[in-house]
Amino acid sequence: MSAAAALNTLSVGTAGPRVAFLHGLFGQGRNWSTIAKGLAGPDGDRARCTLVDLPDHGRSPWSEEFSFEAYAASVASTLRAIDPGPWVVVGHSLGGKTAMVLALHEPDLVSRLVVVDIAPKSYGSLERFEGYISEMQALPLSELTDRADAEARFAEPDPGVKSFLLQNLRRDGAGWRWQANVELFAADAARGTDSVIAAFPVAPGDVEPYAGPVLWVAGGESGYIRPEDAEGMRALFPRVRLLTVKGASHWVHTDSPEIVVEALRRVITAPPTTP
Question: Where is the AB hydrolase-1 domain (predicted)?
Fold first, then answer.
């Protein structure tokens, strides 16, 4: 992978293993703050966590075209500039796919991998997000008076989802703008079953399997990981172990932060192993 533009990051912790966190679609690095603080410990000396804003999200640069390989290259370049590694890399959903691509293409950078509630497969389309994208596009940014006005006008009925999406809304002078590259994601969603974001760019046989240990975390109430996904996961990540968190939705780390922190603590403190 070639070098790419540096991404915005937030640091939590001052000593210990290097851990990078990658968020999902419409998220930001700071969505992992609670987990990172728990992992770093009260004195911040148990882990050095880097919370990454992926391209087209948060305060990171935008792309003209979506590509998991380009996302992974940007993450690799950003992490190497901080520390040559290796790193423990944790990714959720879109960030989980990015983390998998990173580990497959840059295995020397990734000592251990944690993939949260996503599989290395095509999910068909972005239909699960099309409603959110439409709501964001429909918000009349030029008419908003303040954040309360935006919240009142935003059509999403679920308070948690509304809060999650509106974290992307930022003041821009006298007006407002989306930090996330909504139009890029809308264009990808419009591709239907040809969506690049819904797909996965690596198939077994394309590259050497990743030889490091992998923790695969599934939400017990989510439908993103299914039993039939295990074969494809093992083909690319033969040292994978599945942890299913009962009662958790797709946003496992939000629903069950204590369980996720403890699982990650075990990952980063496990003794080095050989394949």
Answer: 17-256
